[in-house]
Amino acid sequence: MDGNISATKVAKTEHIPIRTIRHWLNQFSKKGLPGLERAKRSDRGNVRILNEEFQELTRGLALQKPPLSISAIYRKIVALSKRQDLKPPSYETIYGIIRKINPALLMLAHEGSKAYQQKYELIFRRECRTSNEIWQSDHTELDIYIIDANGKERKPWLTTIMDDYSRAIAGIFISLESPSAINTALALRQAIGKKEDPGWEICGIPQILYTDHGSDFMSHHIEQVCIALKIRMLNSMVGRPQGRGKIERFFQTLNECVLIDLPGFSIKGKPVSKPTLSLAQLEGAIMNFILNTYHVNNHSSTGQAPIKMWSAGFLPQMPESSAMLDLLLLTIHKPRKVQRDGIQFQGMRYIAPTLAGFVGELITIRYDPRDLAEIKVYYQESFLCKAVCQDIAEMVVSLKDIQTARNKIKNGLYLQIKKSQLLVKSIIQKKEAEKAAIEPGTPAIKKDPHKKSSLKLYDNE
């Protein structure tokens, strides 16, 4: 190109065909340096393979479950090509086809819809802007054993309601029974109502109650309560609890900061120390942590203390009356008649001055199973009054406590009966032995085990 070296010499020394060099010179003289650039292929980026069927076959093999390696797919394609007397594609060609398959399609084929949803489906996460906009509710079986009223070791369940915005705990309910609609209802009642402890400020009616798809959350009872209180229910889809990691992290924090240091804490279902706590003692430990540690320390996600974040410039919406919260109590659907001495319920007598004017009338009872000292009385679906049991009015007595006490009394009576029967049997045997000793010729009376006694026994004896 500089005129001093011939094209023939360059072709000879560089081993380039003379026609190629002449073509380059011609392109340079016409277009300059751009004329020497290699033209881009019109099919650049596409796999060059003669047979379209091989592309489909390669993609089909790549989507099989369990997944095949690229080498295994290549060997299958080569073997098939030879059987059909076709030129097999190169490994690079097969590799290029597989690399162009949508990764989402590969995950769906190899790992299933759940893995695909978790990684690729768009998740709607609503960011709250104020307290009580969304409350989350969930149950968990606590990793701890306690001692129940009968002295048995049992694992309790915790129902928790959390304010999504501040991460503050609005209400809890601890029970030895499996999750149920009433557990959720009682936790929600505590969450909405004003607390006795002035340090636990969280209260009011949430705009949305976000729960899982469990039958206890989907119950008619909870649905009717939410309608009455104008709460919108939002349920996560089955098997897809997105957005509920906040309350699950609280459960994890509870394990790591509270339960692990208590007697009866369990790992993989086995207690690492001897259980000694009662259900009430465990609830006290959890509440102490919530109010005095969790609520007052800055949260790792928000950077603020939950209790301060919840109450900052916020005025909660409260129910029109306390009677509205009674919808969340257990209801005895069978009406009771008001007697002259009050209302009989669970073997106890409940009285109130208001009942004097309703003797003989049918009423409905609502109650909290954690405290049977008082019941709520409704007449024709309207709140009438509170009635108290004077025998336990100064105490907090649960239905479980009463049932346990009754069983204890009954078992004690059975023990007395058994002792009496053994005593009678012992006396009879002693008398028979004495009689046999006085009359040596008289054989001792032997009781026929198959012969029924002629003595008639009655249930009231």
TrEMBL record:
Family annotation (Pfam families): Mu-transpos_C, rve
GO molecular function, one term: nucleic acid binding
Name of the featured protein: Putative transposase
Integrase catalytic domain location: 126-314
Superkingdom per UniProt: Bacteria
Protein's GO biological process: DNA integration
Location of region: Disordered: 439-461
